[in-house]
Inverse folding.
């Protein structure tokens, strides 16, 4: 073992045990690493969860138009000719009023093509009651919080009021509400979607809004491995001028940008914890240099070179960085594993779990850790800890043996 490494270990473990300085330094780095890992994973989890929900409910690409699109017209011909497209399904959307036993609700409604929707959107995955096979032109599927608020169960009949009724009243016509059966209840896991969403057959939606054979757009599922940006560009090149294709990210660009900004800002702010820990390592090693000035001078007098003396202090910073990073990663992944239990406990004694769901829109705290984030955290913490030993190393290397031996 090179003597600078041996000297570094002897200073870190002077009596064969972990010194107080070493313990505090390792804990400081470990706390910084754990907080950085947890924060980036949770913020990444929000982004990943939202991405999955968007793709599962809209597809990777969505075709929209300034006005209505003719179902089965040139848009479908264009989509069928793009190699990256695996499947597509027409949709029409709007807002209606539901009434059940004099309880009103105003959810968003989306009509889907029953023959093609399964190839694009896995709705059956989110059903908690009922069956997708039972959905017909006289039935709907409700989100579970909406159904709970109305007190609706499978098989109940609900009344649907649409804006078309107001249009007919202007012409002195009366359009009665549509009575439909509840064929299923679904839960996606997002508060907003689960509290105000209705899914119905496309033909029923066209009747409710008087669309005839027109639709509002198409949800598009791409082939595995296809790049959404490349596919959207190819679709746009084939579409008529009245329609355009957007990727899932472009359709929700503002929200995704906010999430990315918050994630980066939290990561940036938490880096100061490791920087503070690095300064504590620097100050502790500087104290060691002052206390062991005569020993350092003796090493120089025995033939030790300045860079070897400096290397022993850099090794100490490297060891603290590696150990603290390992401890921080272990603690961070442990916190992520028990995150929902921890959040539930905190919410229980503060705002309550209902407020967490209301404001953050998720029933569980999501987390998604990428290898890139872990590598960045490891490199930053190890490099910062190693650099923390440079100033003490430079101070020790500048000591002249004769002057150091005279030190009291």
């Amino acid at each position: 073992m090179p003597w600078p490494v041996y000297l570094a270990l002897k200073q870190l473990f002077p009596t064969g045990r972990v010194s107080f300085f070493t313990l505090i330094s390792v804990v400081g780095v470990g706390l910084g690493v754990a907080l950085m890992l947890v924060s980036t994973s949770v913020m990444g989890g929000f982004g990943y969860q939202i991405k999955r929900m968007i793709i599962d409910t809209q597809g990777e690409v969505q075709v929209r138009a300034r006005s209505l699109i003719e179902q089965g017209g040139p848009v479908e011909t264009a989509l069928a000719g793009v190699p990256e497209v695996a499947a597509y399904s027409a949709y029409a959307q709007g807002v209606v009023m539901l009434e059940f036993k004099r309880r009103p609700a105003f959810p968003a409604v989306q009509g889907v093509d029953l023959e093609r929707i399964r190839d694009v959107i896995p709705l059956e995955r989110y059903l908690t009651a009922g069956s997708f096979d039972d959905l017909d032109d006289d039935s709907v599927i409700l989100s579970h919080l909406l159904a709970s608020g109305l007190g609706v169960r499978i098989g109940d009949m609900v009344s649907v009021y649409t804006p078309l009724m107001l249009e007919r009243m202007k012409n002195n016509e009366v359009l009665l509400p549509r009575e439909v059966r509840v064929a299923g209840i679904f839960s996606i896991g997002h508060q907003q979607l689960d509290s105000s969403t209705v899914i119905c057959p496309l033909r029923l939606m066209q009747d409710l809004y008087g669309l005839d054979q027109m639709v509002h757009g198409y949800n598009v599922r791409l082939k595995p491995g296809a790049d959404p940006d490349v596919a959207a560009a190819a679709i746009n090149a084939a579409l008529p001028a009245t329609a355009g294709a957007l990727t899932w990210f472009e359709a929700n660009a503002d929200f995704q940008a906010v999430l990315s900004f918050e994630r980066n800002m939290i990561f940036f702010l938490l880096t100061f914890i490791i920087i503070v820990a690095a300064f504590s390592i620097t100050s502790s090693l500087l104290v060691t240099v002052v206390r062991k000035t005569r020993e350092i001078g003796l090493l120089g007098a025995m033939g030790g070179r300045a860079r070897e003396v400096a290397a022993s202090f850099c090794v100490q910073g490297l060891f603290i960085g590696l150990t603290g990073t390992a401890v921080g990663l272990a603690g961070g992944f442990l916190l992520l594993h028990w995150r929902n239990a921890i959040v539930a406990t905190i919410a229980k004694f503060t705002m309550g779990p209902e407020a967490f769901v209301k404001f953050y829109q998720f029933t569980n705290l999501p987390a998604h850790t990428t290898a890139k984030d872990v590598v960045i955290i490891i490199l930053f913490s190890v490099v910062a800890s190693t650099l923390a030993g440079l100033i003490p190393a430079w101070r020790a290397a500048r000591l002249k043996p004769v002057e150091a031996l005279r030190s009291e």
